[in-house]
Design a protein that fits this description.
Layout (H helix, E strand, L loop, with lengths): L5 H15 L7 H8 L3 H7 L3 H12 L3 H10 L6 H23 L6 H13 L5 H16 L9 H18 L11 H16 L2
Helix pairs in contact: 1-2, 1-4, 5-6, 5-8, 6-9, 6-10, 8-9, 9-10
Keywords: DNA-binding, Transcription, Transcription regulation
Protein name: TetR/AcrR family transcriptional regulator
GO molecular function: DNA-binding transcription factor activity; transcription cis-regulatory region binding
Length: 198
């Protein structure tokens, strides 16, 4: 049986521990142990637990950023509804999978501050997907597929806010059932499109 490279094992272990015990309680020592390596080896690949967390988000969860980059680079491909549906689907999956990991950030002020500092240093942050959707919608606006009157930033915020809310709201109660992602994405895209299409 082929052994995975240490960096891959560390990311796998970090992802699993962050999901099961939370970011705050997933120590680098426990992550290294679960990955079958030393803590020193972990720091060979990742400068801090915060960087490791960001790498888990970007490498282990649904990839929203590449999708947005591709759509903005080549607007006009597929229908606007199909593109918005895929954005909503990927975003809903991303927030659904990242919310249980990221929630513990808000419980510890110092952890959140360190995390925010590393995000800024790496040029990352929760605002990036909104900017990505806004950039894509402005590109479609230039092609005439989005109304010139449409506020693309507000539309991007509404779309991603709804996806984040889907992850948050349905974990809070057992009575409410989270809408299936494909149905949710289609309905959200169709509703948003009604307000911005030309």
């Amino acid at each position: 049986m082929e052994t995975k490279p240490a960096r891959v094992r560390i990311l796998d272990a970090a992802h699993e521990l962050m999901l099961t015990v939370g970011l705050a309680r997933a120590t680098t020592k426990e992550i290294a142990k679960a990955a079958g390596c030393s803590e020193a080896a972990l720091y060979k690949y990742f400068a801090s637990k915060e960087e490791l967390f960001i790498r888990v988000l970007t490498e282990r969860l649904p990839q929203l950023t590449p999708l947005l980059r591709d759509l903005a680079a080549e607007p006009g491909q597929s229908t606007l509804e199909e593109n918005l549906t895929e954005i909503a689907r990927q975003a809903a999956l991303f927030y659904e999978q990242s919310f249980p990991i990221a929630a513990s950030l808000y419980a510890e002020t110092q952890l959140k501050r360190r995390h925010d500092d590393v995000m800024r240093q790496m040029g990352r942050g929760p605002h990036m997907p909104i900017q990505g959707v806004d950039t894509y919608l402005r590109a479609e606006q230039e092609l005439g597929r989005v109304s010139l009157d449409a506020d693309t930033f507000a539309a991007a915020s509404l779309l991603l806010g709804a996806c984040a809310q889907r992850a948050f709201a349905y974990d809070a109660t057992r009575e409410a059932v989270r809408p299936p992602v494909d149905e949710f994405a289609k309905r959200l895209a169709r509703t948003l499109l009604a307000g911005i299409a030309d």
